[in-house]
Amino acid sequence: MSNLDEYGGGQGPSPDVLVVTTNDVPGHRVDRVIGEVFGLTVRSRHIGTQIGASLKSMLGGELRGLTKTLVESRNQAMERLVEQTKARGGNAVLMMRFDVTEAADLGTEICAYGTAVVIAPAG
């Protein structure tokens, strides 16, 4: 696995469902708005990662274990967002955002959300 995959994410070149953070997709029109969709995951804290992060935070620097966990969590939330969109008949998500919150001091909740739509090439 490359550093690109470990410390980042996003869609490949030809996704089944296009996910964008913009209001529209250049060169496409929105034929139908399906509505809000989201993908959610809650990750508990791994005790080994927490201890390592606590030690690292005293010395300074990136908390690589936590970074990898957050990347995995965001990617899982995105996968679930795409599944929800496909299940509702959409082929795109507009205005996608992430929301990250603490879940009752037990872990971290990551939610990917946006507006599911059906788009088609303009013209």
Automatic annotation (TrEMBL):
InterPro entries: UPF0145_dom_sf, UPF0145_YbjQ-like. Gene3D superfamilies: Hypothetical protein apc22750. Chain B. It comes from the Bacteria. Belongs to the UPF0145 family. This is UPF0145 protein FB465_5716.
